[in-house]
Amino acid sequence: MDEYLQILGFVITGVILLYFGYTLFFHIGKGHASGSDIKNKKTDIEGEAGAPRTCPVCSIRLLHGERVKSSAFPAIGKTDRLMYIAGCYYCLEGDRLRVCPVCGAVLNYDENLIARFFDKPGRSHVHVLGCSRCRGPRH
Ligand SMILES: [Zn+2]
Ligand SMILES: [Zn+2]
To answer: Which domain holds residue 72?
Structure first.
């Protein structure tokens, strides 16, 4: 019985080590990706390096690799770009309501969120300004 517990102990230690190793690796990998990806992805409007990990349209938490469909426009200033956010796999498929976090309107499929994409090295983030309804179609 003691032997069994010992093995169990090893397994648990192994899992913990694996978890910490993964977290560390993941953070380092992420930092590298956001710097180099942006430069190479000028034509690729889907899958920005700084894509939010929570869908801003239906607020579902996305898993690694699940992306929010969005179109980014060329830089206006030095650091920020205008971005249209369509949504993620779940809300575009109609599984979840697409809601504007600013005005609370439920969006149709041709309506998008309008956001600013701050493109800072290693730390880019998306700030939602509103939707096609509360911001107007072109702003
Ligand atoms: Zn979504
Ligand atoms: Zn709105």
So the answer is: 41-135
